[in-house]
Automatic annotation (TrEMBL):
Matching InterPro entries: Met_Sox_Rdtase_MsrA_dom, Met_Sox_Rdtase_MsrA_sf, MsrA_MetSO_reductase
Assigned EC number: 1.8.4.11
Keyword annotations: Oxidoreductase
Domain Peptide methionine sulphoxide reductase MsrA: 25-181
Biological process (GO), any one: cellular response to oxidative stress
Protein name: peptide-methionine (S)-S-oxide reductase
HAMAP family from the UniProt entry: MsrA (MF_01401)
Length: 190
């Protein structure tokens, strides 16, 4: 049996050896290019690292360790979501800060879509790395429900798996400032 990836190969984080204040959260909020760009712009160097990839899909669809690709995921048959994986230190930024930004950045009430991007890969999700963060994320989601008319569809689960997107997709809007950015990604006044 092959080992299931949960942490990006591009992030130097190990829950058993990293500082107790270092954490990892994985977020799905539509097209990962815009989500990554907004988090980088808003939080800057308060984040230790942020990468884009795919999470919480069906491992059975994987034919090899490098078979979870953008092309496969956008076919819609893998169950994977486009995500950003954020490595942060709670001394610099809290999970509440990161998730409050998450609920303002996208529309968490639309099932499997953000703007014109449609499919299960564009669903809204919070994938926690441990039980404590899972409970906190569930609590924060409930606090945001009234602000979105009690219609939030965001799934909140433990992170089951994660695969890095190709280098082409990492920091995409930094490398391609005129590239596609989902118009549904903007900071809402809530």
């Amino acid at each position: 049996m092959t080992q299931v990836n949960k942490i990006s190969n591009l992030i130097s984080y190990n829950p058993s050896t990293s500082s107790s204040t270092e954490k990892l959260i994985t977020l799905a909020a539509g097209c990962y290019w815009g989500v990554e760009h907004h988090y980088r712009k808003h939080f800057g160097n308060k984040l230790k690292n942020i990468v884009v990839g795919f999470a919480n899909g069906n491992e059975e669809t994987k034919t090899s360790d490098d078979s979870i690709t953008y092309k496969r995921v956008t076919n819609g048959d893998t169950g994977f979501a486009e995500v950003v994986q954020i490595h942060y230190d709670t001394k610099d930024v809290s999970l509440n800060n990161l998730l409050s930004f998450f609920f303002r950045l996208h529309d968490p009430t639309t099932q499997n879509r953000q703007g014109g991007d449609v499919g299960t890969q564009y669903r809204s999700g919070i994938f926690a790395s441990d039980e404590n963060d899972l409970k906190e994320a569930q609590k924060i989601k409930q606090e945001w429900q009234p602000k979105w008319g009690n219609k939030i569809t965001t799934e909140v689960e433990l992170l089951r798996n994660f695969y890095d997107a190709d280098e082409y997709h990492q920091k995409y809007l930094i490398k391609n400032p005129e590239g596609y950015a989902c118009p549904a990604h903007y900071i809402r006044d809530l």
